[in-house]
């Protein structure tokens, strides 16, 4: 009772002094610098773009020179020894790309200065070439030690390079933001390591230790122990005793959540969809899969992946049957529950990454309610499966494919985010990470490659939305110029699609000549030329009545 009534929070001045004393070491100060650097990158995108462009060109040139030097002399400054012929080819490709980047403005003045997007596209070609060479080398040396990791690494590099070359602007922004976020997370971990070192101590010298050494010391010190890990294993995996009862309960809850979600989609009810999210149990095997991957539990990983696959098939089949027998007429073009889940974009993957991190953290942290994990993850899993089943019941294969792509996006992103959180929060066994790091990386490589492949259609959709939004903004400016500053018309709506442009204005009088606007819009659509144009005028009638005479 005394402990509950006595406040154990020290005064603010004492807290501040303890914090300063705890982080006054080399590692934590580097962490503070990383946090500040990441914040600057996020807050000053224009300046960061110029710096990133310069650093990328210099790094690519340095890599090319080192590869050529190694191929000619047999001595390597950095990295592993490899086939000298392949290294020479890589080096030449790198130097050719750098030369083109530096001299393109002089060779083609009409092209303008090189932008960061151009540099990223060139780097994408380089990385893809290196990945392809690594794959070829691994296939030529198949059966030899190290061929499988080289094959996995080459696959990751090839997919990443293709993405960078195909979507340079999107990848440039993603790389900058991701680098800043990773730098800030690393910085916060270094600061937290300093605080924990003040409480528990550490054999690591912060003045001499590198950042990877500090991170590994953090991972070892975060180990939750076998007892706590055993408790989490019992909650995540359907094992004896009571294995069949656990599985039966899981299937019952999954069927009920899918039924709720399906009828919510048919009724176009967001509130009922939220109810399905609250009871959906799909988060359990997905988080369990991530936990098995980072701990090297092959049998548990296979069982969890199989349970997820069976759950997906069963959910889509159940939603299909319920929708086929439902008397509700479905309007796919106006049903918000359907339209919001059949065209996934990269934003959906970002949401899933955050959901996976939240769910994994709530799993290992006993201070966080377990229901938060279910809500955080199920929000992006059950509704797409219901939409897929409903779409299949109406033979709308395209919509069903989009909904399944959204589910697959969320599934892969959640697994990857949960793996990272499990490593940093101590659920992953340090012994497994230190003794079998290659095995853990090999099990994660297929998910990274799959995430890259999924990003292709997502980026196509995102690029289309961004392009359409830019065209709508440019069209709006053109319409404003066409109407003039003293116009009595007000723009109500502008729609840009494959059929052309539809402009809706409201006001009194006659609008200007429409052919003038059509010719002005030719600059907005330089490739297609002047678009088909539809003008909708909402008339406004003004009636004035003078005040009655008082005489």
From TrEMBL:
> Record's superkingdom?
Bacteria
Protein name, UniProt field: Uncharacterized hydrophobic domain-containing protein
Arranged from A to Z, the UniProt key words for this protein are: Membrane, Transmembrane, Transmembrane helix
InterPro entries, alphabetically? DUF389
Task: Specify whether Transferase is a keyword of the entry.
Answer: no
Q: What's the source species for this entry?
A: Demequina mangrovi
Membrane-spanning segments = 27-45, 51-73, 85-104, 116-139, 151-168, 174-195, 247-266, 272-294, 306-325, 345-364, 371-392, 404-428, 440-460
